[in-house]
Amino acid sequence: MEQEWSGRIxxxxxxxxxxxxxxxxxxxxxxxxxxxxxxxxxxxxxxxNVADCVARLDEKLDALEKRPGKRWDSLMDKILLVLAGAxxxxxxxxxxxx
Length: 98
What we know:
By secondary structure, the protein is mostly helical.
């Protein structure tokens, strides 16, 4: 009977050791997973910041790209006004001499 109990106790001790090793491995895996989740959270925050910066830069770039077009339009308006003024002056001077 004592030998039977001794065998059972030995089996339980082996099982306890096995479970202890498995629990230790699970704790390590859980810690690794926690660190990974924290790193992903930090990366997501940084990615949001980068996205905001890119959006602001995109707006600035659009404004810079539109600037030469506005200048060209302004120049064309001035040229058309000068030509119209010259034409009107021509008509007025021509009309006065006829």
